[in-house]
Design brief:
Elements lengths: L4 E4 L5 E4 L2 E2 L9 E2 L6 E3 L5 E5 L16 E5 L4 E7 L3 E8 L4 E8 L11 E6 L4 E6 L16 H57 L11
Parallel strand pairs: 1-6, 5-10
Antiparallel strand pairs: 2-6, 2-7, 3-4, 8-9, 9-10, 11-12
């Protein structure tokens, strides 16, 4: 852990998130920990930046996630980064020289990860804040030992269904495997016979003809 900035590519556009934290209750909705637009001092969580604007083409964007600060799909460009011992300054510069996005991360404290800590989930659009507890995988289901949760019951039902169809799947796999092996054996035997026939023909051609008389000088 201790990562503050994650740089990604492949997707052909530019996207940059606020500092976000993994949400064990809903992994598709990370927790926004800071709604500042550009300056992040000892941010909690990570900033994710997709920089896929090097050329070829651009992938269109549809909508904007609440944890995304900046995004664009119309201009090529690069992310220029300047590092010092305690700070990184980043600027997304379009091909025409204009700055499309910029942010700075300053570090004066070593990041610590504490399981179960209270992390503020900031809704940047409405400036509302709600606290969501970060839980470990062992207790993230929120269920007690005596009373299984609905998700636990669903998992049990799914496992039961899988266990019922596994024998049929195994039987079908064996049948297909046996059939394929038999086909391979038949092809090998056919090829062996062809080779043997060819060898017999060569031997026959190499044998001297008994009906041929030798000519004496």
């Amino acid at each position: 852990m201790g990562v503050d900035l994650v740089l990604e590519g492949h997707v052909h556009n530019y996207q940059r998130s606020y500092p976000i934290w993994y949400n064990s209750q809903d992994s598709s909705s990370p927790l926004v920990t800071n709604c500042d637009r550009n300056l992040y001092n000892n941010p909690l969580g990570q900033i994710y930046a997709i920089v896929g604007t090097g050329g070829v083409n651009l992938h269109g964007l549809y909508g904007k996630d609440q944890f995304t600060h900046s995004q664009q799909d119309s201009k090529f460009g690069t992310l220029n980064m300047h590092f010092t011992d305690t700070k990184v300054d980043s600027k997304f510069v379009d091909n025409d020289g204009s700055i499309g996005d910029q942010f700075s991360i300053s570090k004066t404290l070593k990041k610590s990860i504490i399981d179960g800590m209270q992390v503020p989930n900031q809704h940047c659009a409405s400036s509302q804040t709600s606290n969501t507890k970060i839980q470990s995988e062992s207790d993230s289901s929120g269920s007690s030992k005596d009373q299984p949760s609905a998700s636990s019951n669903d998992q049990t039902s799914t496992k039961s269904k899988i266990n019922k169809i596994i024998p049929d799947i195994q039987k079908e796999i064996k049948q297909r495997t046996d059939k394929k092996l038999e086909e391979v054996k038949n092809r090998i035997e056919q090829k062996r016979q062809e080779i043997q026939l060819h060898q017999d023909t060569i031997k026959k051609d190499l044998q001297p003809n008994k009906n041929t008389k030798s000519i004496k000088k």
